[in-house]
Amino acid sequence: MIARLVIFGGTGDLSGRYLLPGLAALRAAGRLDDGFGVVCADRKDRDAADFAGWVEAQLDRHAGEVPADARNAIIAAARFRRADIGDPGTVAAAVAGDGPVAVYLALPPALFPTAVQTLDQVGLPPGSTIVLEKPFGEDLTSAMELNRLLADLVPEEAVFRVDHFLAMTTVQNLLGSRLSNRVLEPIWNSAHIARIEIVWEETLTLEGRAGYYDQVGALEDMVQNHLLQLLCLIAMEPPITLSERDLRDRKVDVLRTLRPLTDAEIPRRTRRGRYTAGTIGARRVPSYIDEDGVDPRHRTETFAEIELTLDNWRWSGTRFVLRSGKALAADRKEVAVHFRPVPYLPFGRYGSAQPNVLRFGLDPETMTLALTAIGGDGESLVPLTLSAQTQPPELPAYGRLLLDVLNGNPALSLRGDEAEEAWRVVDPVISAWSRDLVPLDEYPAGSAGPGPRVSEADPDGDPAERP
Ligand code: BG6
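# 6-O-phosphono-beta-D-glucopyranose complex -> structure
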């Protein structure tokens, strides 16, 4: 196990909100070695006492459920270093030490190329790993260039293009449920499944993240990475094992099979929106463009929806709808598998069958299956829903993700070709949106988002399977 972690951007939001709490959870679970040390490197200098106070406050706020001795151990293991990612001298000092190091770039993605070049100049000890957050590049060309720079620095197995959704147990359950139950796999194809919705709708708003979010928007923040990864797990062929190679080979097959949308299809198969002022529960929310740090000229979307199809035997004819939005009325975070109606119902006037829907709740951890049954009168058809709670995770997603990084297991990170293929799918949409082929709709914060949904508006869709 690697015993040293250096976080560039180490006193930023990601570090305080997720990485240090993830380490505290690992410590509490007995998964960190005693000699483990973390360096938080950042441009703005801090003295030791001020830094320790900041770490303590972050852990109180974001890891309150972790026992105090584990939080104290992380406070004791953390050191601050002033470093500028473009300045090799300060970077060398931050990564200096015995043995391999895991370097986490908790930086704006625009700085990744500079960071990788500086690290290459400085050199990392053998066995070191590098971690990059999404979005990986800003289009196919820049992702290819970044992959080239990384290949000079460390071997591909040492590059962790992390996606914290893959480290969520509810996401791992997509494969777990699919592949360990006799009843699902035989019907896991377009003959039986009309549509799969992959949805991450949040009540969360910008939450002070304009510096990052206003550059990317919902399509690049959520769809290009998290939601496409969920699609891969749902649509992939069963892998031989869950080793990094088998798993990532099968995921990249899916990405390569997705048909990029054409300019003619994009207005019918995609939607974008941006929230205006409104109320979510008791909370008054300003218009997105009035949030601190937002530049309205960016025309950043806070809601994105795209409908994709796969060109292969298993899935030709099934629609995959990916949707994510912020400042919506309710949290809805799930994968919903909509089955086709039965071919024939011998019940005459006694009602109709509700289409079966299998829902994988991503947060909170639930699974439900909507079926149809006979009612109390013994002849009419009534809806019946089976619901269950899946097991809560033992580690938070970032805890699991950091454990894999320190253990050198990249199975739950994206391989270079995966990151490139994901841009191949999304680039045409970015281009069409930048040319205004699709209007930027507005929706009040606290509403269901701009309507109607792609899946409902689809002129080619089968009305029988609509919700
Ligand atoms: C992040 C996105 O990757 O995922 C956020 O940048 C989003 O915009 C978040 O809110 C959702 O995941 P979680 O685990 O923080 O609920």
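# post-check
Confidence is low (pLDDT under 50) at residues 457-467.
The first helix runs from residue 13 to 28.
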